[in-house]
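Practice record 12: protein with magnesium ion.
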Amino acid sequence: MSLNLSYQKVNKVFNENTKAAVHALKDVSFTVNPGELFCLLGPSGCGKTTLLRSTAGLESITSGEIMYGDTDITTIPPFRRNIGMVFQSFALYPHMNIFENVAYGLRVRKVPEAEVKKKVTEVMELVGLQEELKRNPSPMGLSGGQQQRVAIARALVYNPDILLLDEPLANLDAKLRRYMRGEIRRIQKQTNITTLFVTHDQEEAMAIGDRLAVLRLGVVEQIGTSDELYNHPQNAFVSNFIGKMNLFQGTIEKSADSARIKDLPITVSIDHSRNSSDGKPGSPVLIGARPEQMSVSPTKTDDSVPGKVGIIQHLGQFIRYEVNAAPEISERTLEIDMPHMVQGVKEGDTVFVSIKPGMGYFFPKENTSNE
Ligand SMILES: Nc1ncnc2c1ncn2[C@@H]1O[C@H](COP(=O)(O)OP(=O)(O)OP(=O)(O)O)[C@@H](O)[C@H]1O
Ligand SMILES: [Mg+2]
């Protein structure tokens, strides 16, 4: 039976009390539900691997608690924590055949030979490698996706309470990644093991996670389902990390449910449910709109912002227009998705972009750099 995995005010400081101190995890608190596939998402260096390694006991935390059910696992030595881990590099043993690679965790636990055989056979079936097991080559004789399955089988073979996956798909090509992420979800749901899956690929996290946590500089910025994070991001950073968000410099108006973009006489009126800013009238905000919440037109209207068209891309279901507005209006290239080509607009033209009525977000002003 799976239990909760919960983090309570977990802090990790590397090289504490030295000039080189790094506060890698800051008061991290959240709970992974029993049998949940929970994704940790965030830019490079935000603390994802540190949290995973701390859970496995490969790193000791500076303060806080990591609980599995009612047990504080930080008091348990790493080899007694019943945790399966898959690393980005797979870390398979090249000198052992795939049977022995998978059996390793059972041998360490001194499981009788007959049971080793039974468990390895079962788990190889679960990950879809029963044919390869018959040949039983070294992992070096397998494709990237197959090696990845061996790594997952090796982590699952001793029925761990918790499964930790650190960017397990990073070494695979794009097509195989998409396939394997579906496989990982299938295997995880079949085994119902409480799982933490680390990635910095938002599409991957949204596609497979029951829920996601977005980390930035060791701090959990937001937790929710893909839908919650996409539709109700709490701040501009999350909004731009989970999907694309076009951001404009704006000012809150008198009524606080509308803002104007910079000095332009454009008022964007925003639905309260999407309003993430508690700013007072006159205070600066970022106004956000997703690519599908905006439109491009060759003609000026009262509520449009001028810009120059960069690249136009046909992406099947929609056409993506890249538009550059003045930097004091929007610092980054805008991306606008239109259901069809806009008549009279080509690359290099001046166009007018607007946020569709009732669409858009307000965010407190902040640095939204993804780095
Ligand atoms: N052993 C260590 N000693 C000192 N600092 C470390 C150590 N390991 C990690 N750090 C620092 O802690 C922070 C978090 O690192 P971590 O490896 O957890 O990031 P990450 O989110 O996994 O990044 P990536 O996506 O690049 O794998 C970084 O600033 C990193 O430099
Ligand atoms: Mg990492």
